[in-house]
Amino acid sequence: AVSVYATQAEASVKVAGRIAALIRDKQEKGKKAVLGLATGVTPIGVYNELVRLHKEEGLSFKNVITFNLDEYYPMKPTAAQSYVTFMNENLFNHIDIDRENINIPDGTLKQEDVAAFCLKYEQKITGLGGLDLQILGIGRTGHIGFNEPGSAPNSGTRLVTLDDLTRSDASRDFGGKENVPTKAITMGVGTIFKAREIILMAWSQKKAPIIKKAIEGEISGEVPATYLQLSDHVEFILDEGAASELT
Ligand code: F6R
C-alpha cells in the first residue's frame, strides 16, 4: 500500500500515532511491543512526535523493546556520529524506556566476534516473538537498513560494506567521506521481512527517483527495497515530493 501526505510533518504524526496505538494496545493486554527502529533524517519527525506524546499525553514506553536496524562499524557508542548517540538524542533520552530494552548493533566488537553477535541479535528478536513493527527509511542506493545493492532477500543480521554513494551521503556528518566507516552491521532483508508490519517512509523530491524504482521497478537485488514489493504487510508513507515520480 502507498499513502501520500501533503507534508512530511503530517505523515510523521500519522506514523507516530500508529506506533502509539500499537504500544497502548499491547499495554492493555499486558504485553511488550517490539519495535524495529531506523536512524537518519527521515524518522526524526516521528521521534519528535513520540516524545511529545510521552510528555504531553502520558504515552509510556515501559513495555517497549527496541531493535535498531544498523550501526556503523567500527563505531564507538559515544561518538557524535554513532547511531547510539542519534537514538539517545532524538528519542531515548526523552522517554521512559528501560535502557535494558534498547538494542543497537555493537560497533565496538572485534571482527571475529561480529558473526556470533549478529546471530544473537536475530535470536533475541525471534525469542521475543518477532518485531511487531519495523520502520524504515530508504537510501539513494535503494538500501533498507544498510542492505546495499547485491543483498540477498533472505539475508540476516551481518557485517556489510557500505556503497560508495551511501558513504558520500554520510560525508557531511563525518566532515568528509574519508572519515565515513566503510562497513556497518545491519539487520538483513530477511530480518526486516519477518516483521509483522513494515512502514517505509520517504520525504522530498530527492528520494523520488529511488521511490519510483522501489515501488514500480523490477524486483532485484540491485535495488534491495524492491524486495518489499513481495510483502503484503508493507506500507510506503510518502510526502508529495517523494511520490512525485510515481505513475
Ligand atoms: C538508518 C538506515 C538507512 C536510512 C537511509 C535513509 O538506520 O537504516 O537505511 O534509513 O539511509 O537515510 P535518511 O533518512 O538520512 O535519508
Short account of what is shown:
The chain is α/β, with parallel strands linked by helices and 247 residues long.
What is this structure's SSE topology?
Elements: E1 2-5, H1 8-28, E2 33-37, H2 44-57, E3 64-68, E4 70-73, H3 83-90, E5 102-103, H4 111-127, E6 133-136, E7 158-161, H5 164-174, E8 183-186, H6 189-193, E9 198-202, H7 208-216, E10 234-239
Parallel strand pairs: 1-10, 2-3, 2-6, 3-5, 6-9, 9-10
Antiparallel strand pairs: 4-8, 7-8
Helix pairs in contact: 1-2
Bound molecules: fructose -6-phosphate.
List keywords for this structure.
single chain, 247 residues, Rossmann fold, 10 strands, 34% helix, globular, binds fructose -6-phosphate
The CATH architecture designation is 3-Layer(aba) Sandwich
- Averaged pLDDT: 98
Distance between the terminal alpha carbons, to the nearest Å?
14 Å
Per CATH, the class reads Alpha Beta
Fraction of residues in helices?
25-40%
Question: What value does the Rg take, in angstroms?
Answer: 17 Å
- Unreliable runs, pLDDT <50, ≥5 residues? none
**Shape, per Cα inertia axes:** globular
Total domains, how many?
1
Q: What is the number of strand segments?
A: 10
Q: Give the helix tally.
A: 7
- Main β-sheet description: 7 strands, parallel
The CATH topology annotation reads as Rossmann fold
SSE ordering: EHEHEEHEHEEHEHEHE
Q: What structural category characterises the helix and strand content? A: alpha/beta
| Small molecules held by this entry | fructose -6-phosphate
Strand order, largest beta sheet: 1-10-9-6-2-3-5
Percent of sequence in beta strands: 15-25%
Domain Glucosamine/galactosamine-6-phosphate isomerase: 8-229
Protein name: Glucosamine-6-phosphate deaminase
GO molecular function, one term: glucosamine-6-phosphate deaminase activity
Keywords: Isomerase
